[in-house]
UniProtKB/TrEMBL annotation:
Species whose genome carries this gene: Clytia hemisphaerica
Cellular component GO terms, alphabetical: ribonucleoprotein complex; ribosome
Classification via PANTHER family: 54S RIBOSOMAL PROTEIN L1, MITOCHONDRIAL (PTHR36427), LARGE RIBOSOMAL SUBUNIT PROTEIN UL1M (PTHR36427:SF3)
Pfam family, one: Ribosomal_L1
Name under which the protein is recorded: 39S ribosomal protein L1, mitochondrial
Classification lineage: Eukaryota, Metazoa, Cnidaria, Hydrozoa, Hydroidolina
Amino acid sequence: MAFSAARSHGNLVSILRSTVSNLCLLQKVEKTAIVCGCSYIQTRKFRPYSVIPKKYLKRKNRDKKDRDDVYFLTDQVDPTYSVDDAVNMIKAYDLFGNEKLDLLLNMNLGEGKNKVAVLKGLVHLPTPVTESQKVLVFAEGEDAVKAKRAGATFVGGKELISKVEEGELEFDHCISTLDFLPNIKHLPKILRNKMPNTRRGTATNDIEEALKIFSHGETYMADNTGKMRQTIALSNFSKEEIEGNLKEIMKAVDSHKKAASLTTEKFYKHVSLALPAGPKIDLKISEVTPV
């Protein structure tokens, strides 16, 4: 009797086990359980801290000693220097000698009708940076004698026209007296941007002054965004020569400010000097702009 009771009890346990196993396969198991075959293994359930232990809390007043604050250099306002200090810094950074010293300008060209369409021109620097350029002068009589005396590369009248048409002469600029202009009115297609023009100062009766500018003149030009990079000196120039060239180029650029109808503070954003192997040195705008 006891044997039959134990046997029936064992059958009941096996039936219950198979039933539970089937339920584990058919029903969804909680995320805190791992299913291995047909068995169900209960795991420990981890929950986030309701109260963070003190050892993980950030300590207040980590150190009471004074510390240096560290900031990104890009977030700081660059210092500005006087022309005298900037030239001294340029001399200190001049490692190789006879390097080009560039003037960097960032300008506001205005908006709408008052916007400066093209900021471009030619300036005569007191101390030339580049070699003298070749200049052809159309002139006759006394003006031709003055042009030769002033150092023009080619001087002549109608005899030069055929040579220009055939492309025998190489020159950088072309100047003409006002009375000779009718003789070369058919040359714009050949001379193009070198065609003498009163607005550019290449058609004038003051040949000597024009040759002084165009023989040692430096062409400057800003892009559409108002940025300009212009070589104004060499690093081995004296302090007086660098300051003289800087003053002259700023005077020429400042002449375009009237077209934009802007004040000096609004026209110039940044004025800097830079060497190829040195940092950019920002200048005080009030010291480099004409009064």
